[in-house]
Amino acid sequence: MKTELPIYLEIKKVVNESKDIKTLIFERNLDSSPGQFVNVWLPRVNEKPYSISFQDKNRFAITIFAIGPFSKKLHELKQGDKVGIRGPYGNGFVLRGERIALVGGGCGAAPLAFLADEAVKKNIQVDFIIGARNKDLIIFKKRFERSKVNLKICTDDGSEGFKGFTTELLEESLKKDQIDCIYACGPEIMLKKVIDISDRYNTACQVSLERYMKCGFGVCGQCCVDPIGICICKEGPVLPKNIARQITELGKYKRDAAGAKVRI
Amino acid sequence: MLNTKIGKLELGNPTILASGILGVSKASLKRVANNGAGAVTIKSISLEPRKGHNSPILIAFESGMMNAVGYSNSGAKAATEEFKELSDIDVPVIGSVVGTTPKDFVDVINQLKDINFSAIELPLSCPHTPGFGTLAGQGTPEATYKITKAVRKVTSLPLIVKVSPNTQEIGKIAKAAEKAGADAINAVNTLGPGMAINIEAKKPILDFKVGGLSGPAIRPIAVRVVYDIYESVKIPIIGTGGINTGRDAVEMMMAGASAVGIGSGVYYRGVDIFQKVCDELEEFMEKEGYNSIEQMRGLAHED
What we know:
The structure holds two protein chains of two kinds.
Chain A: E1 7-18, E2 21-27, E3 37-42, E4 46-55, E5 59-65, H1 69-75, E6 82-89, E7 99-105, H2 109-121, E8 125-132, H3 141-145, E9 150-155, E10 162-163, H4 166-176, E11 181-185, H5 188-200, E12 204-208, E13 238-240, H6 241-244, E14 253-255, E15 261-263
Parallel strand pairs in A: 7-8, 7-11, 8-9, 9-10, 11-12
Antiparallel strand pairs in A: 1-2, 1-6, 2-5, 3-4, 3-6, 4-5, 12-13, 14-15
Helix pairs in contact in A: 4-5
Chain B: E1 4-6, E2 9-11, E3 15-17, H1 26-34, E4 39-41, E5 58-61, E6 64-67, H2 75-82, E7 93-96, H3 102-111, E8 119-123, H4 141-152, E9 159-163, H5 170-179, E10 184-187, E11 191-195, E12 197-198, E13 203-204, E14 210-214, H6 219-232, E15 237-240, H7 246-255, E16 259-262, H8 265-269, H9 273-288, H10 293-296
Parallel strand pairs in B: 3-4, 3-16, 4-7, 7-8, 8-9, 9-10, 10-15, 15-16
Antiparallel strand pairs in B: 1-2, 5-6, 6-14, 11-14, 12-13
């Protein structure tokens, strides 16, 4: 019978992306698809979901923004330390078309970076729009600068790239080229805007959502969304826009560890 | 063909979503109802909000699952808002309520009195939450009687007492619940607690270290407990523990159950397990010539 148990994996390399962002690289054939996530376990501390930001035949990586107590603990880890890994879980992105646009806000760029790699392998033209509050929160600039990916960076304060929002750069791409599908991950206000824009340009769109997850495989019910009741950990985290649009709590509220509604 | 009764509670089919699985929100319950459940049970509500234990809270091992969720819930006040309008769920909704003392149970039930639940369930048997269930001694015949009696005084809804399999005196516990006015027994809650250790990390996997066992591993125990309870009391029994198929459900009914609870099965067969079990039940009944659930109930007791 199938099991859901963590395997204890050594961190093969720690990459410092910037002051508060690190990528942990593991050696294992995870066989995940872009948009899926793993649950990362620190024994006697906690366990949290992280999307996969990189994968090749025998390695995978997660990219961690030091935001809360758990992610700060992960930042203390060094090469050779071990963590528990369960997964991969959830439904990933589905690549379609010949030219696509990826829209990543903050840490939302992590799963999209993995998607960009896969798209390039399939000779799909990629506009990768990465936005953040300031230049310290922009990830993967070096990784994609010299790749086939058309990288477009923006920051709220103009400290890197275009001064403004990812959605403005997305509209620019849509005006210039025929985009077959938009893929987005980031703050929900951004996701809602991206869905609206995709409607206006009559473009397919897939978004990745974040909810408080516990089990990771659709049983505990912690990440069920209103009013359709699907589990984001299992039926998501990536959803096509026609499903995402049915989630009325999108951009309004989410549930905390107790299951209480918290305004977004 | 599949309709059944648990006291006054009438179900279109005997599959019930067990408490603690998916029942965090009304939306989630509705989805389970739409997937064929005959009734759904909410995740247990306590007076105050509880964030529960840290993760991992739930794992699956080779023959079952183990959880230590720790009764995370948003509290009685938020529950009145979450479940205030249940009319668009087509099947009975069972309100599961937990407390630390008889008065605590009563306080929660009083807070939830305006919710249109079809029955109230008292899990006096959780093995992994300090202050509640077996860790607070709620599973003894005496405590079962006291808590059930106190709750009986403040609600006229059908009252279901959920019992632990970890006892030598299951008959006495069931009798205590019946004597105190319970309308049905739900057997069983999770077994244990048990423990799983990751041998590379050299640490228990569940953050609470120990957790309650569910799934196929505990089914024979659940069947035996239902069998014993059936011999002890007259009130109907909901058989819960490791039910994944229609055949499993029949086995539980032949032990004495009028309906079956399904929890871990959502993991093994998906959220549409309720429809699947119903289809398999019907298939079995047609093949073997049964016309009703009632006809199968308790058959294993006949010599």
